Amino acid sequence: MSDVQDIPVDDAAAGTHNQSPVQDLDPAETQEWLDSLNYVLQSKGGERVKYLLSVLEERAREQGVDLPIDLDTPYINTIPASAQPRYPGNREIERRIKSIVRWNAMAMVVKANKNFDGVGGHISTFASSATLYEVAFNHFFKGRGEDGYSSDQIYFQGHASPGMYSRAFLEGRLSEENLNHFRRELRETPGLSSYPHPWLMPEFWEFPTVSMGLGPIMSIYQARFNYYLQDRGIKPINGRKVWAFLGDGECDEPESLGAITLAGREKLENLVFVINCNLQRLDGPVRGNGKIIQELEGLFRGAGWNVIKVVWGEDWDPLLEKDESGLLAKRMAEVVDGQYQKYVVMPGSYTREHFFGKYPELLKLVENYSDEKLAKLRRGGHDPEKVYAAYKAAMDCKGKPTVILAKTIKGYGLGEAGEGRNVAHNNKKMNEAELLEFRTRFGIPISDAEVAKTPFYKPPEDSQEMRYLRERRAALGGSVPSRPKVAPTIQTPQFSDSTFNEFKVGTGDKEASTTMAFVSLLRKLVRDKQIGKYVVPIVPDESRTFGMEGMFNEIGIYSHVGQLYEPVDSGILAKYKEATNGQILEEGITEAGSISSFCAAGTAYASHGVNMIPFYIYYSMFGFQRVGDSIWCAQDMRAKGFLLGGTAGRTTLNGEGLQHQDGHSLLNAIAFPNVRAYDPAYNYEIAAIILDGMRRMYQDGETAIYYLMVGNENYAHPPMPEGVEDGIIRGMYKFKTKEVPGAKLKVNLFGGGAILRHVLKAQDLLAEKYGISSNVWSVTSYTQLRRDAHSCEHWNMLHPDQPRRTSYVEEVLAPEKGSLFVAASDYVRAVQEQIAAWIPGDYYALGTDGMGRSETREALRRHFEVDAECVTLATLYRLGLRGDLDKSVAAQAIKDLGINPEKIDPYFA
User: Which residues of 699-734 are buried (b: 16+ CB within 10 A; e: fewer)?
Assistant: First the structure.
């Protein structure tokens, strides 16, 4: 027997406007107040009423009256029918266009799954939001215009993508063959990606949004970044809006709502959220026992947003007008969302009994309505005039972002196939009867005999619908979404420039961290006359950790309102300086927000026609591990820029402990094809990599994200050896050779980052104590070496009768064939093991597999067995296995080097 019980739910449990009022002890006085309010409203307007009420509330609070804070409003439309603007379009033609778009969107998914079972797709999300999109397409969405960069930036709800493809088909941007290849992209005629993926459809989509929650937070930081460009004199906003379409269920993702206070605080009036409140997520109601629209209204109003609710369609207007007692509005607030969904799937008689039937006065209100008419009472999100009024109000709103909460029905129009049902989200098939019903309901001119084939329908080119469709988009600046084919380029500084000589000569006796080296380079770049103003430093409240505080006063921290206070450190050079034209984006403690700014800056070349160059530096542990989904998203949207994993390495960040010590970001980065990951040891390596990356991305037009590990350990940096720049970029170069006179053995040691110095010390130990010669190689990127080797191997496999291509790692190591190779890094062994297949000899990797600790660097490196002594021991051990050296040498070395043979394996410690 199940433990789950059906508990009767009082539908009056939801809402905050249905509580029983306190008993009125003086009705006459109450009426006087109400009469006064009505007089002011009629004679001086709503703004005067708002002012007087705010003054009264303030005075009451001053006198200690405990007034409740009410963040939501009655469960009715924010804009009453009397205040609606005139609808500017042809409702009938727009209805026909919308119906055709609906049909083709549904047909695309159904046909794909008929022909290839399991291809998948979603039809219910767009079915619920078609009106929300079509009104915007016909009257609001700005296209790119003549300059190609004047469009609104639109974050489409990912699951609604079939609707966008369907409209693009009518506009002539996609062919019938494209639609036939929905979710089949490996075809001669390209298919359509499942969701918005700019990487796969680079001339169509702009922003990936279906990893839910990322679209909303990215849109907020995009809107803020647009002001950043304007305030710094780079690109004016010129009325462009940022739109984010999302679902009510998606708002459960922390990223969806996590940054809404930023939008309110920054007064981002260029931002519009449209939340499709169909009250359902994948498995059931979003808030079955509550009211998601009311909940979201409270959250957004509290965060300083302009909230517009579009709850009821025009069919409800006469009923609300007759509802002088307010009983209908009270009943609307009482009913919970789960019950509203029940009304959708039941006949009008059920609604009469269970909704209106609770109060006799409400039954009287609809006594002349048939059950059929009651069943057809529309929700606001399906009413073009209500939606238009909301969008118009959003366009006119000043000083605040706007959120539109539009109530809809999931699977609207699908009938028995899924309208308002819990199965709607996963529905992707319809039987013939359901297709016939859909065809008839939306008036699609397809015969009964053809319906089962789900053909696509496109009106004749000279039809009213097609002319109207083209005229509206032309008037608004062209089709959306779209993305430019060609990216702008700029001249970037080169490493050969004398400006960067200081990175080539070393630091002498002075010690510095690689983080300091990066910051020094960054300061030079922001001063560069050619590209300086396009550099975007981004940091999540850790500027001082990374030694960037000296840049505060030099280039300023961006603030739309400037600095309205005198900072506590105003008397020092490195004071905390905010400025309207500030260049640093200091985002506070938010990696998710910071990476969103990186995405906005990294795609400015496509959105704004301007090459912005973001440098986002953060605790390396909180990059790929914490916001890896967003980094993947940045890759998908073809962002360009630099990620800096600060305080990197499992043993380099010695005091912070397990949760901060990063030994695996480079491993995570392997899975990101467009991320070029490096672990530089010296300042000249950092400069070479960054300057080459800038040239490749912004001058040559390559699409990539560069990821550099930088540490906080101070040590001396040597001069750059001659002729190593190419090796730095490609992944490795020979740094130092140590020959021992008369030596019978020679080995090759690989090091990178902070561990390179320990490898160099191991080279000395091998020479001085054991008479072994060696080469030390600085390996800046195992991942780049692996990718190059894979590329050659892939070509060789597919061209077996052609001369074999040789990878870079094979070429540079060919003279060392048959040797022993030992690699050590501050990262897990798998990073080094990537290139094992191409090493021309015995290969052994040392790494920091396991959990971190708070300890000194020396103790940590001994614990993880990556210090000089352990590198030396590993070399002797492997030479013994090969028979090149007696095994007793390694055994004695354990004693001589002070290594505990019974020490715990760090992998499991």
Answer: eeeebbbbbbbbbbbebebbebeeebbebbbbbbbb
